[in-house]
Amino acid sequence: MSKALMIQGTGSGVGKSLIVAGLCRYFNNKGMNVAPFKAQNMALNSFITIDGGEIGRAQALQAEAARVEPVVDMNPVLLKASGEMGSQVIIHGKAIGHMKPRQYYANKKFTWDAVKSSYKRLSKKYDLIIIEGAGSPAEINLMDADIVNMAVARHVKSPVLLVGDIDKGGVFASLYGTLKLLGRYSNYIKAFIINKFRGDPEILSPGLKTIEQKTGKPVIGVVPYISDIGLPEEDGLALSRNTFSIKPVNLGKTYEKIKIVVVRLKFMSNFTDFDPFFYEPDVDITYSQSSSDIENADMIIIPGTKSTIRDLLFLKELKLDESIKRAFSNGVYIMGMCGGYQILGRKIFDPYSVESQQKEIDGLGLLDIETKFQKAKITSRVNAEFNGKRGDIFPFLPLLAQNSLSQELKGYEIHMGMSKGDIGLFKLRRVSEGYSDNPAKCYLDGSQNGNCWGTYIHGIFENDYFRRGIIDYIRQIKGLTPLKFTFNYAQIKDNALENLSDTISDNLDMDFIEGVLKL
Fold first, then answer.
1. What is the pLDDT of residues 341-398, one digit of tens each?
2. What angle do CA 110, 113, 119 make, to 5 degrees?
3. Domains and CATH numbers, the chain
4. Which residues are catalytic?
């Protein structure tokens, strides 16, 4: 059986996910076969495994840090909030329906069995499992329903490190209060970590001594606030502030920037699809609900959403649909991703009440497609190629590489709806389980109408030449010189994971941690 180490937090957003990622890379660099695990995650950012299962995006990043392929057992229970319908419940990578809180908690035995079976499989394959808790383990109203915090620690007999976020204030009270509310389970807590500290750690010395005296638990590290960590945000908190921890690639000079506006939908999902643009030295990207921002953009992106119909109604309520249409008429480059692609179409039908009780609604009508929601969810990795030369919407491709038109694009699909109409921008092959039985079969995807296009392919902007081509195309439209420069996004992420690992290990007592693990 593998060894286990659990990272819990005094609350949501304290940095558990990135500490787990940093530890995964640290122990992998030491030659250990390590995997991440989070029993239950509530997130709208998700990822598709090679076998077509859906897991939290944070666990996919942690697996990347551990240099292992993400699998559904790393996140056996995923909840995706869906408004008045409750949450979509995903077990072992597959959606089983929507549940409201009481119904979900009534099914604890089912979800707990899923957690135990996933952990058992992982423990047979890996030397060490780094476990992430969720929220706070001291939610005393939910302790009987717990399947992700102390329930997991008890089940696998894992030592726990408790993380507090000093940037939020009140970190010592949070650590002390959490420990006291845990009661008899507090014995699982072996030490504290203070995260996101700004300034001289010596200032904390009196507090560190006092908290250790009052609890008998040591503080084994003070991790500094990392302003330019260069990794995807663990939640959507940064969206409302438009403050992101990614800095553009430094080319030694400044460039006039194109402005990309991602429409900040109410139920936006997979906002990390657009992270690669933050690295581009000639791009200013923002998330906005401002009609002024939208109408003055060089490129507008309508992102994915967990509730397409409600977000379409949301756009109409704010009259942002009119702003998007005016921008289209003025020649602004418009792109729709997944749910955003559906919103750009003529009609959306929901005959089975998959998303709402509204059976039919008019879309923005910028693309000649109609979407019908199905009961089954399509989740698959895909390989895609351009269907024909597509020089009308992608004239930039020959500028980048001689064979760029035949370059294969990689990404993944996560959607309930099926679209029909003027479709054929891409030919794609689904390469996950359930589709790979006929690897030669091609599916058509994507639609285009002048300066507007859309696709179901998540991750399409992680394809470096494709992303740069779009930017240079818009630069040309604006009369700017194309940079014809691109970078390896995957390598940049890997470098950021190395830096994260170094920061974590430099500021934590790794001898203590390895001692707790008996390595």
1. 999 999 999 998 888 888 999 999 999 999 999 988 999 999 998 876 555 556 655 5
2. 145
3. 3-230+494-517 (3.40.50.300), 250-486 (3.40.50.880)
4. 338, 458
